[in-house]
Structure formats: structure tokens, C-alpha cells
Amino acid sequence: MTKVIYLFSLSVALFSFILGTLNSQISLFTCFVRSSIVFLGILFVFSIGGQFLRWIVKHNEESTALQVQARQEAESEVVEENQEVKE
């Protein structure tokens, strides 16, 4: 998966570099710096997005576990009440 992210980031940075070189008002060094910033920016956005998704999944799993635990406790209380009523 990281290979796809690097490939996407590199292709966008290369496209940015090509468009920058077509503009005759800026230097080649400026085009290179801008495309490097684009490359690192895209990697940063994907990294933050991945961390955010990981946090959401972890939070959702914890929430689901708590819901299952509460449901099991409620069911065990109902079973205990039914046993007490039968006795």
C-alpha cells in the first residue's frame, strides 16, 4: 500500500515540476523546491489520514467491545432474575 502512496505522490510532484518548468517566470531551482514540497505534503496528508483512520477503527472496536460487554451483563442479569423467579 505504501508503494502506491509513494507512486501517487511522486507522479503528482513530477506533474507539478513539469508544469513549473513550462512557466518561464520561475527558475528551475524554484520548480524543484516546489515539487519537493508537493511530494512531502502529499505524504504528510496520507500519513495523517492513515493515523486518523487507525484512531477511528480503534475507537470503534473499543466502543463495540463495551457494547457487547454491557449486553452480556444485561443478559446474565435477566437469566439470574428468571432463575430467582422459578425458585
Notes on the protein architecture:
The protein is an all-alpha fold and 87 residues long. The protein is 92% helix and 0% strand. The longest helix has 59 residues. It is rod-shaped and about 90 Å long.
Report Rg: 27 Å
What is the subunit arrangement here? single chain
Helix content: over 70%
Q: Order of helices and strands, N to C? A: HH
Estimate the strand proportion. under 5%
The parts where pLDDT drops under 50 for at least 5 residues are none
- Quickly count the helices: 2
Span between termini: 60 Å
Q: Looking at the structure, what is the overall shape?
A: rod-shaped
**Main β-sheet description:** none
Mean pLDDT: 83
> Given the helix and strand composition, which structural class is it?
mainly alpha
Number of strands: 0
Which descriptors apply to this entry?
87 residues, mainly alpha, 92% helix, 0% strand
List the helices and strands and how they pair.
Layout: H1 2-22, H2 28-86
